[in-house]
Amino acid sequence: MIASSQEIISLSNERIFLAGLLIVALGFFTWKADLGITKPLLVSSLRMVIQLFLVGLVLVYVFEIDHPLPVILIALVMLLVAGKEVSSRQKYKIKGFWSYGIGTASMFISSFAVSVFGLIAIIRADNWWDPRYAIPVLGMLLGNTMTAVALSVDRFTTNVWNDRDIIEARLIIGETANEAIKDIVKDSLRSGLMPVINSMAIAGIVSLPGMMTGQILAGNSPDDAVRYQVVIWLLIAVGCGFGSMIAVKMVSKKLFDERERLRLDQLSVK
Amino acid sequence: MGLSGCSGTGKTLLLRAIADLDQSQGKVLINGKRREDFSGSVWRKKVGYLPAESSWWFPKVSQHFSSIEDAKLRYLGFLDTKIFDSEVSRLSSGEKQRLALARLLSGLPEVLLLDEPTANLDDSNACLVETLIKNYCKKQGAAAIWVTHDRSQLERVSQNQLVMKNKTLVDL
Questions:
Q1: Which of A20, A39, A101, B55 has the smallest set of CB atoms within 10 Å of its CB?
Q2: pLDDT grade, residue B172 (50/70/90)?
Q3: How does residue A21 score in pLDDT terms, banded at 50, 70 and 90?
Q4: Which of B12, B23, B25, B41 has the highest number of chain A CBs within 10 A, making it the mutation to test binding with A?
Q5: How far is A87 from chain B (nearest CA, A)?
Q6: Interface confidence: ipTM more than 0.95
Q7: Is residue A233 a contact partner of residue A114, using CB atoms and an 8 Å limit?
Q8: What spatial distance separates the first Cα and last Cα of chain A, rounded to whole Å?
């Protein structure tokens, strides 16, 4: 067994710079090949470095003051940014506030509720809001739920837009709105949840999940690392499932009126 | 009731409004009962709307029907009843339109809203569809609004005729 007293090797700035050089090399080749992704690649890399160092600074501060308020604040910022991200990934958006509200609300209901349940009932730290547990758990749930919700909603609105004739043909023969979009809902949820389902299916065989890798690198026993990872994956799957179902239901409510008429005028095209 | 008029005068819009597919103002009644007395789906089953182009959402014809008898298929003009098990993508537009009509009529609508139902069909298919609709209306006592650009068809299928001009109805 790995000794838990073993200190993790610190990575100096020069060593991080070495990894950065590799990205620059990749950027050079994508630029030469005129792939059109050099700029987003480099900008995203730079954003990632700055954001992570900043969050590192904030977390050091939050760990020190040990109070629920900063944890709740960070959680809210994470949620609002995730909601914005879901909205910006849609080709066809619900008009007005709900383009933003649906993603945010569905993630709030799913990710927040599941995280709090995990922290109180499963992890059971002395304080459920203990930032050492609460922030990473919520971060992992939100990150994955965000992807699932964005994929499901995007697939749903795109299919409804493209299949409007079929939806109306089904309404014409007397089907309800729910019956007319049943197949589209199924397809959207499948595409939103497939990444999580596939990741769970290969976890441990093809890849070691991030949290488990982190714990092992930090010197924890693989057994503990596995237990945490199992719980996190199950919570992620639950968060993604409920988040996507709630989001698609909310969008479909917006796309049909009280007479169950298809209202594509509620969508704006990017 | 026959309805004609130039393209873009709002014939389709009128039928869609009656079928409650688009938002509209005003009163629509069937046998003295208001549209609002029924849910959207029940109303749309009562008023069967048939567009020129039919839509299909399952790969096979049979998946779109709860059941259909061979006799009925022969009545629809299909000599080979195997058509019921075939794939929708292999059908001709005439076959599709006749099956779409059967799908619509199986819900026993009280009113038919026919939006150029024979526009994409050859003469023999058009004639078949005309006969099917006329027989249904006679048997069920159903009313029909029939939109067409074809003057001779208008004469054959309608007792009263209206024309749409500049988004309003004009009596002939």
A1: A39
A2: low
A3: very high
A4: B41
A5: 27
A6: no
A7: no
A8: 54
